[in-house]
C-alpha cells in the first residue's frame, strides 16, 4: 500500500504568522508544505514569489511542494528551484515546451511536477510521463482556497493513476482543491497519494486533531 501524504496549503494560513504556522502544522503531522504561487494572469489571484520560498527554506523541516499557477513558467522555474523548492509543479496549460521546462527543473536537482486544470484532458501526460516525478490533478478551478470539490474529477484521478502505474517508475499523484476529512477517502480510493488541504486544516482551529481525523478516515 502506498503511503498517503498530507500537504497543508499555506494559502489559507495566517500570513502574518507564517513561520509559526509552518512550524505548527509540521508539528501537527504535515508531510509536505504546499506553496501556491499565483500571478494574476494564469489565475485571477496574486500570491507570492521565489523570495518567499527562500524565506520558508530557512525554517521548514518538511519538503516544500511549490505549485506554480503562473503563465510562462519557463521564465521562473529555475529561480523557484534554486530558492529551495523540493518539488516544482507547472501547469500543462501554461507552457508549450513542457519537456524543456520540466528538464530545467530537474537539472537543479528538484522534483518536477505537471498539473492539470479540471477541464484539461490528460492526453499529453503520456508524452511527458517519462520525466515527471509528480502529477497534480486539480479538483477545483485554481485561484482560491475554500472552493467546492468537483466530484467528477474522481474518474480523472483514476485515469492518471492507471497511466502512472503503467509508467513503471515512482511518480506521486497529488490532488488539490476542496479536499476535506469527509471526502479524503474518496480521493485516495480514486488513486491519489498526496492530499493538499488548505482551509480544512488552517481554518480548523486544531491542526493536529484535523490531521488525525483525516488519517482516521483513511484508516492509517
Ligand atoms: C487552489 C490552490 C490550492 C488551495 C486549496 O488554487 O491550488 O492549493 O490552497 O485550498 P482548499 O483546500 O481550501 O481547497
Ligand atoms: Zn495548490
Give structural attributes.
220 residues; 8-stranded parallel β-sheet; 9 helices; binds D-xylitol-5-phosphate; binds zinc ion
Compact overview of the structure:
By secondary structure, this protein is α/β, with parallel strands linked by helices.
Structure commentary:
The protein is of the alpha/beta class and 220 residues long. The chain contains 9 helices and 8 strands. It has an 8-stranded parallel beta sheet. The termini are close together. The model has no long low-confidence stretch (mean pLDDT 97). The structure holds D-xylitol-5-phosphate and zinc ion. Zinc ion binds at residues 9, 34, 36, 67, 176, 196. Residues 9, 11-12, 34, 36, 67, 140, 142-147, 176-179, 196-200 line the site of D-xylitol-5-phosphate.
What order do the helices and strands come in, and which of them pair?
Blueprint: E1 5-8, H1 18-27, E2 33-38, H2 50-57, E3 64-69, H3 77-82, E4 87-91, H4 98-107, E5 111-116, H5 125-128, E6 134-138, H6 153-167, E7 172-176, H7 181-190, E8 194-197, H8 199-202, H9 207-218
Parallel strand pairs: 1-8, 2-3, 3-4, 4-5, 5-6, 6-7, 7-8
Helix pairs in contact: 6-7, 7-9
Amino acid at each position: 500500500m502506498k503511503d498517503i501524504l498530507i500537504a497543508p496549503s499555506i494559502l489559507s494560513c495566517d500570513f502574518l504568522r507564517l513561520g509559526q504556522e509552518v512550524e505548527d502544522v509540521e508539528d501537527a503531522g504535515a508531510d509536505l508544505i504546499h506553496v501556491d504561487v499565483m500571478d494574476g494572469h494564469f489565475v485571477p489571484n496574486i500570491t507570492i514569489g521565489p523570495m518567499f520560498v527562500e524565506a520558508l527554506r530557512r525554517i521548514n523541516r518538511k519538503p516544500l511542494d511549490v505549485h506554480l499557477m503562473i503563465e510562462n513558467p519557463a521564465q521562473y522555474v529555475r529561480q523557484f528551484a534554486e530558492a529551495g523548492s523540493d518539488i516544482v509543479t507547472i501547469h500543462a496549460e501554461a507552457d508549450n515546451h513542457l519537456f524543456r521546462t520540466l528538464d530545467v527543473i530537474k537539472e537543479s536537482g528538484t522534483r518536477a511536477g505537471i498539473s492539470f486544470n479540471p477541464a484539461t484532458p490528460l492526453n499529453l501526460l503520456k508524452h511527458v510521463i517519462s520525466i515527471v516525478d509528480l502529477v497534480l490533478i486539480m479538483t477545483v478551478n485554481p485561484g482560491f482556497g475554500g472552493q467546492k470539490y468537483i466530484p467528477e474529477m474522481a474518474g480523472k484521478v483514476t485515469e492518471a493513476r492507471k497511466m502512472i502505474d503503467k509508467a513503471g517508475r515512482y511518480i506521486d499523484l497529488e490532488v488539490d482543491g476542496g479536499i476535506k476529512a469527509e471526502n479524503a477517502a474518496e480521493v485516495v480510493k480514486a488513486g491519489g497519494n498526496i492530499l493538499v488541504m488548505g482551509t480544512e486544516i488552517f481554518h480548523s482551529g486544531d491542526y493536529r486533531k484535523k490531521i488525525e481525523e483525516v488519517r482516521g478516515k483513511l484508516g492509517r
